[in-house]
Design a protein that fits this description.
five-stranded antiparallel sheet, globular, alpha+beta, homodimer, 449 residues
Chain lengths: 449, 449
Amino acid sequence: MTGEVAKAGRILRAPENFVDSQLALDITSKGLDEQRRGFLRKSFLAAGAALASGTAYGQAAGGDPAILTLPEHSRTLGKPVAANPYGMPSRFEGALQRRESPGLTRVNAASVSFTPLQSLFGIITPSGLHFERHHQGWHDIDPAQHRLMVNGLVRQQKVYTMDDLMRLPSVSRMHFIECGANTAMEWGNVAVPSVQYSHGMLSCSEFTGVPLSVLLDDCGYDKKTARFVLAEGADGSGMTRTISIDRALDDVLVAWGMNGEMLRPENGYPLRLVVPGVQGVSWVKWLRRIEVGDQPYAAKDEAIHYVDAMPDGMYRQYTSIQECKSVITTPSAGQRLLDTGFYNITGLAWSGRGKIKRVDVSTDGGRNWRTARLESPVLSKCLTRFNIDWTWDGAPAVLQARAIDETGYVQPKINELRAVRGTRSIYHNNAIQSWQVAASGEVSNVQVY
Amino acid sequence: MTGEVAKAGRILRAPENFVDSQLALDITSKGLDEQRRGFLRKSFLAAGAALASGTAYGQAAGGDPAILTLPEHSRTLGKPVAANPYGMPSRFEGALQRRESPGLTRVNAASVSFTPLQSLFGIITPSGLHFERHHQGWHDIDPAQHRLMVNGLVRQQKVYTMDDLMRLPSVSRMHFIECGANTAMEWGNVAVPSVQYSHGMLSCSEFTGVPLSVLLDDCGYDKKTARFVLAEGADGSGMTRTISIDRALDDVLVAWGMNGEMLRPENGYPLRLVVPGVQGVSWVKWLRRIEVGDQPYAAKDEAIHYVDAMPDGMYRQYTSIQECKSVITTPSAGQRLLDTGFYNITGLAWSGRGKIKRVDVSTDGGRNWRTARLESPVLSKCLTRFNIDWTWDGAPAVLQARAIDETGYVQPKINELRAVRGTRSIYHNNAIQSWQVAASGEVSNVQVY
């Protein structure tokens, strides 16, 4: 994975080809003064403001500072509109990818690709970089053929086409989705080398769909006996998950839209369940059936997998809510501070129980804390972006973030979590993450107790 | 443009290949009951729930209902994770494109491509479908070479690299961007045939960058004399726009991030100005220079272009704020209602002056109005999604939306706007839009006075 780490990038952001070039071309303040004087001396050569600002380019290109040249893109006709009817990132952003962690699973169709959190901004995850967790691979299903059945304890079972669904009252809401196994390696003291691999089973989108409650009402679910629903996917794994009827009637969506357009195939196109605050496995992709029942279904992926191993040898089932958590995304492990001075520490906070109330940041391993600035909007069961100023003096430092949600719950330290949960678990690790900054500027993943 | 209209799609959403297939394969309620009985008769064949829900597929594929077959994607191993390190939409969404309006300009590098609003959900515009308006084409500029100069009435002029900028305190905010010429054709009674072409110079993203005020402070702008700034782009058009110092110090961003990742090349990568509430031309792309001055610059694109022709033969300059406006995106012109019954009317509202307070919807050409439901979050100078129930009885109808912003401003009717502005203008048409539903279900663009 070492090769991958390099690709995960350094400060200030990931694509390392970009940052490396910056090092080579960095213009210091001193250099800038030189430049400016040169610019003023030679300004009679400039026909106007456009040329003037071209000085920086002339130098960056290695040319004689006395020769003021405009870059080619300021002198030529560019590409036409709709050259890309569906646009793509810059050619300089090619290193920004979701990445598999080789060897994590035996079959790459039943594996994970991680979102490159270290290089993202704000709270919206670009759909092309949304993390993936498949149990039997993904398909690009024809929406004209796809159907959703609602059956079980209902007055009338129904089969809906996509057109049927998309005529119904729809809502749009922003929510995070996090795999229950996110940050799993940290349970066992395996400090994975970047935030992409430690926390990258986390994404956030604006979802659009019909409330599941509308469909349950439409089919006349039995209010006396209905206590659970089962959601089932159409992929080969036939993923099935139990959801309580209270939750199903609350804020669960049968969604087709993600970030303004149709879901991507890897994220369940044309239909997936959105279960705000709950671990990703319950957000059943390629959703084809909802069954209403009177007891939990104890499906394979809730009775055997996705259970919490406890220190006494027992397993907790049906622990689905993603508790309050946060992580600093920049600076983070695998990045490097280029020099001392001012940095903007930034990261993400979220809670499956509601809104984030506060995020504190420490740069000395948890001895002192300062409250970070939260970007708006702060939404329920959604990522919240935080920022805080930091001036690095060149001494080793340990960076931590600690989130508090609107219920008053405080994100725990790893030793606090282990005291209750032990170290045998895979799931639901929401401990405070520590990043160590070395005197060299290298940032690495450490565990601080 | 007629061929283009077909591509703009019909109800419920655009890709017409999808909707057409739906027509061919529609399962009526009667058919469903038949299906269900068939399913129950044959259910001994089903090994479990997975097979059971496959009945719909067996029929949809045209097979004997007695033969229960699972679709191939439920029987096979799918594609691996990270098959697309940067994911793309489904192969079934190919018709969803930003499109040029042929003949609108003489050179396609100085033209427009429109966002397909009729097929989008929520408020976030997928970056691949963000509208384009270039004045001399677009380039994919190397961020390692790019520089931003701040000069003019400052204590120390400076040149910033991208790394310099990205270390500074950053903020993330969601804002709409609308071209001042959006909906221009409606001034002259030219009812363009779809909302993509009438309102598609409109997009909305989460932007991340450093407040311009931070850079102006960093360079020590002259508080006594500074009254305006000039923003200049690095493309061949050398786009330059004047912004008042009050606005520059308020909410303007020097942005590199859009929807979580770096700006797209067509949208100014690696740096653009974000001027919330102001027409798109001031959001200078490929931003390379900010000059602080004491008077407006009267640049070409503010003295001659982007001026409002008034009925008395005069022109208004520097009218930059996008006033309160809304439009129904579905159903909209070029779509077709497949049958009578329930529909979810949905659309977008926005104001350059702040938040949307209310959106009313009429289905009878403005005689009666009902208040629509606003999706959260409702943010300042950002798109707001509205939804409202409607049951179509099959009679002709005229659909309208009317937005009111937090200042109390009410979106005007087209005749109210013409009474003040005449019909010679190109810019700043924020009139109420009317869509006519014919008895056939066809939706078209009409002007209602």
